[in-house]
Amino acid sequence: MTHNAIQRLLLKRFALAAGTYALALLLLWLAFFTGYYDAPLASVVIGSALVVISQVALFGFFYSGRNQRLPDPSLTEAQVLLGLGWQTWLIAHLDEARGTFLVFYVLVLLFGLFHLSRYAFIRCALLVFFSFSAITLWDGYHFQLADPALAVLQVCLLFIVLIWLVFYARYVQASRQRMRQRRFALQAHQDTLRGMMRQLENLVATDELTGLFNRRHFLRLATRELDTMDADVVHGLALIDLDHFKRINDVHGHAAGDQVLQAFAAVASACLREGDVLARYGGEEFVVLLPDCNAERLTSCCERLRIAFTDVELIGISVSHLSLSAGMTLLELGDDLDDALHRADQALYRAKRDGRNRCAAAWENADA
């Protein structure tokens, strides 16, 4: 989750707690007007005002984002302790309705069920039990208990509920930990699968020997370029064939032929711009797509590539007179890729017919 999403979630949790406080204040005033709250009006007003002020202060702290600087941005334990303190103050001023308001202890502890650590939850539960027991003992010592047997029953009931909550909180936290571990494991498996998918995509799109794109992937990329090109943009396309490649294989062996193919791939990759597409079209034939390229730039690129390839020196074998022939054409908006490849192939045929080691352009034949 993003930082903003987490902060919005924390604000929603705070709004839920503030709503619980509002409900408790409503019941407090109801208890006061029905005579169950043993305190003067000023005490009720001051207590209610302090609750409202504390909630406004917490809202300002959350809204400012300063809570993100703390180890626990949710301030769960602080909010739970504040709620328990206010609830204990409320219980201390109740008479017969004391047992009814015990439910708010449970609500406050449930607020921290998913975010408090096990020991923090136990500390809060102990605070609840000893606070309520101390109030009961104090009233009993001063003979202020209207029904001592009922008070003992309330303490026992609270003890049983707190024990149940502690065990339930432990179960919930253990379940969340298991779910978290499973989520991390699932994430790791997903990352592994994504990596494997990328490897498979690379294997499908790449020629194993040269590391260049294969024919299928080139056709996919070229088709996408044609579909997205603008009306005033021209692309350059060239088919390149390594001269006398069959003779190299026959004389020096297929290992030498493979090294020639790899050498050409390295030289061509170094000569092209970022964004140009180079692929092995089949056998000793390669294809180049130069986006946003005019005739002069395409010719210059192919000539530079041809000259660079003639200067290649192979390691471990002596293959002389390496050369290539290229057929060039231009792609405009509305051109069919198969027609463009056919034009480039015809230009390549002319380059080979005219003596190899040269670049021929389809537009030259058209001009003639």
Description:
The protein folds into two domains: 185 residues, no CATH class; 153 residues, Reverse transcriptase/Diguanylate cyclase domain (Alpha-Beta Plaits, 2-Layer Sandwich). Helices cover 66% and strands 8% of the residues. The protein has 368 residues and is of the alpha+beta class. It has a five-stranded mixed sheet with strand order 2-3-1-4-5, with helices on both faces. The mean pLDDT is 88. α5 packs antiparallel against α6.
Structural class: alpha+beta
Task: Give the biggest sheet.
Answer: 5 strands, mixed
The stretches of 5 or more residues where confidence is low (pLDDT under 50) are none
Walk across the major sheet and give the strand order: 2-3-1-4-5
What is Rg? 40 Å
Layout of secondary structure:
Layout: H1 3-33, H2 41-64, H3 76-92, H4 103-111, H5 118-141, H6 148-205, H7 215-228, E1 235-242, H8 245-252, H9 254-271, E2 277-282, E3 285-290, H10 295-310, E4 324-331, H11 337-353, E5 359-361, H12 362-367
Parallel strand pairs: 4-5
Antiparallel strand pairs: 1-3, 1-4, 2-3
Helix pairs in contact: 1-2, 3-4, 3-5, 5-6, 8-9, 9-10
